[in-house]
Design a protein that fits this description.
alpha+beta, 28% helix, 24% strand
Length: 452
C-alpha cells in the first residue's frame, strides 16, 4: 500500500464506477474551490480501493444541496453545476429536490423517441446550457439532459403538465422566444409547503443563422412545431387579445405583446394570453389562469403610471385570495389592459364579492355605491375614472397656481373695502372693476360742475 502511495502517479482504484461517481460529485460541488477540490480528489485517489466512496459522495451531495438552497433564496443566482441524481428512501431525486415527474408509470430516464436540441440555455430551474429533448409520446414529455454525463437533470411528463406557453423575449435586439412549461401545482400560487413545483424555462433563437438554406426554420419555430404535436396546446400572444401601444426600442416595426412592471424590487413582464396572465421571467414565475383570478383592481393611478393588482388563489384551495401588485405600469397600455379584462369578464360581479364596493375596483356592480352619487344601472369604466382623477389633479394645480399669483390690491378695491359686502356692491356696479369705474364717474361730475 505504501509503495503505491509513494509512486508518482497512482493507479486508478479497482472500484472504478464508485470512484468516478465520487470524483464527479466532488468536482461539481467544489467547482469554484480549486484548492479544496484538488486536495479531495488527490486524497480519494491515493486511498485507492480502501477509500470510503459513499462517504465522499454523500459529502459532495450535501455541500451541493446547501449551495443550491443559498442560491435559490439569494437575490443573485449563481447555481453550481448539477450533480448526478441519487436515490433516497426509494424516491428519485435530482439535485437534492424531487424531480418534476412524480408518476411511477413514467420514467424521465432511459431512451426516448423525441427530438434532441443541443446547447439550449435554461434559466429555470437551473441557469445553464443543457440538451433539450422534446417528445410527443404520451408516455414521455420534456426533459433536460447533461451533455457530458448523459444524465437527465430535470424534466416533466405530459400527463403532469398544466400549461405550455411560448413568449417573445422582450427588449432584445435579436428575436428570441422563451418557452415556459408549467407543471401541475407549478403556477406560482402555491407555497413550497403546499407542494409547489417550479416551471421549466428555456430560450430559443427566432432568427436564422448566416448561410441558412432558403425555406429553413428558426430554432424556436422547430421547437414550436414539435410541441404542437403533443397533448398540450401551446399558448402564444395574439394581437386580438392584447398588444402594447409602446413601440419596441430594438425592433420598432414589430408589435410588443408585453407590459413592463415591477413586483417589489424585481422588474419583469406581464403577458395577456387567451387563457390567463403570465408574469416572468424571474423567479417566481406566475401563471394567473382565469379560474384562479378573484378580482383585478387599479391603484396609484398617476399621469404616467399605475399599479395593477390581481387577487388570486389556487383552484384547489379555499383559502383567502392573495393580492399580487404589479407597479409602474405605463399609462399608454391602460386602455388595452382594461379592454382585455372586460373581454374575458374579469370584472364580472360574481367574482370577489368582498371587493365590489372598493374604489377603483373593476368588479363593481351595476347600481352599487348609490350613497356616493352613482346612478343605478350605470357603470363607470376604469379608464374614465383615471382620466377624471387626472383632470381633477390638473384643476387643483391650476387653483394653487392662481392662489400663489393673487394680489389683494390688483382689482382696484380700496383699503376699506375688503369684506364680502364690498364684493356684492362691486358686482352691482358692473363686476370686479366696479370700484375703479365709480372713481372715474365722480371725476367727470366734478369737471361738469366746474364748467357750469
Amino acid at each position: 500500500m505504501f509503495a503505491s502511495i509513494n509512486q508518482g502517479k497512482p493507479s486508478a482504484p479497482s472500484s472504478s464506477s464508485q470512484y468516478y461517481e465520487a470524483a464527479a460529485a466532488i468536482s461539481s460541488a467544489f467547482h469554484d474551490k480549486s484548492t479544496l477540490r484538488d486536495g479531495l480528489l488527490k486524497q480519494l485517489k491515493q486511498n485507492g480501493a480502501g477509500a470510503d466512496f459513499a462517504l465522499y459522495t454523500s459529502l459532495a451531495f450535501y455541500v451541493q444541496e446547501l449551495r443550491e438552497q443559498k442560491d435559490t433564496t439569494g437575490d443573485e443566482i449563481h447555481l453550481a453545476p448539477a450533480v448526478k441524481k441519487r436515490k433516497l428512501d426509494g424516491e428519485t431525486l435530482v439535485n437534492g429536490a424531487p424531480r418534476a415527474d412524480t408518476t411511477s408509470s413514467v420514467s424521465l430516464s432511459g431512451k426516448w423517441s423525441g427530438t434532441l436540441f443541443e446547447s439550449i440555455s435554461f434559466t429555470v430551474p437551473q441557469r445553464k446550457k443543457l440538451s433539450l429533448e422534446l417528445s410527443i409520446q404520451p408516455s414521455e414529455g420534456v426533459r433536460a439532459i447533461n451533455p457530458s454525463t448523459k444524465e437527465t437533470e430535470f424534466g416533466v411528463a405530459w400527463n403532469d403538465i398544466e400549461n405550455v406557453v411560448c413568449l417573445p423575449v422582450p427588449e432584445k435586439a435579436q428575436a428570441a422566444r422563451n418557452f415556459v412549461v408549467f407543471p401541475k401545482n407549478g403556477d406560482g400560487l402555491l407555497d413550497a409547503a403546499e407542494g409547489a413545483r417550479e416551471p421549466i424555462v428555456w430560450t430559443a433563437a427566432d432568427t436564422l443563422p448566416r448561410g441558412a438554406e432558403e425555406g429553413a426554420k428558426t430554432q424556436a419555430t422547430v421547437m414550436l412545431d414539435t410541441l404542437r404535436g403533443g397533448a398540450i396546446t401551446v399558448q402564444e400572444p395574439k394581437e386580438s387579445e392584447f398588444a402594447s401601444e409602446i413601440p419596441q426600442p430594438h425592433r420598432k416595426n414589430e408589435k410588443a405583446y408585453h407590459v413592463k412592471a415591477f413586483r417589489g424590487s424585481k422588474d419583469g413582464y406581464l403577458f395577456f394570453l387567451s387563457t390567463g396572465i403570465v408574469w416572468g421571467f424571474k423567479k417566481p414565475l406566475i401563471f394567473f389562469s382565469f379560474a384562479t383570478i378573484d378580482s383585478v383592481s387599479y391603484t396609484s393611478i398617476l399621469q404616467r403610471t399605475f399599479n395593477l393588482n390581481i387577487a388570486a388563489r389556487p383552484t384547489s384551495s379555499d383559502a383567502e385570495p392573495v393580492e399580487y401588485e404589479f407597479s409602474m405600469v405605463d399609462q399608454a397600455d391602460f386602455a388595452s389592459i382594461e379592454a382585455y379584462i372586460k373581454k374575458h369578464n374579469l370584472q364580472d360581479a360574481s367574482m370577489a364579492e368582498e371587493r365590489r364596493a372598493k374604489k377603483l375596483n373593476i368588479n363593481g356592480v351595476r347600481g352599487q355605491n348609490l350613497e356616493e352619487g352613482a346612478e343605478a344601472g350605470e357603470e363607470e369604466s376604469e379608464l374614465r375614472k383615471a382620466e377624471r382623477e387626472v383632470e381633477m389633479q390638473a384643476d387643483d394645480d391650476e387653483d394653487e397656481s392662481d392662489d400663489e399669483n393673487f394680489d389683494p390690491g390688483s382689482e382696484g378695491e380700496s383699503e376699506s373695502e375688503g369684506s364680502a359686502s364690498s364684493d356684492d356692491e362691486s358686482d352691482d356696479e358692473g363686476g370686479g372693476g366696479g370700484n375703479g369705474e365709480g372713481v372715474e364717474g365722480d371725476e367727470e361730475e366734478e369737471e361738469e360742475e366746474e364748467e357750469l
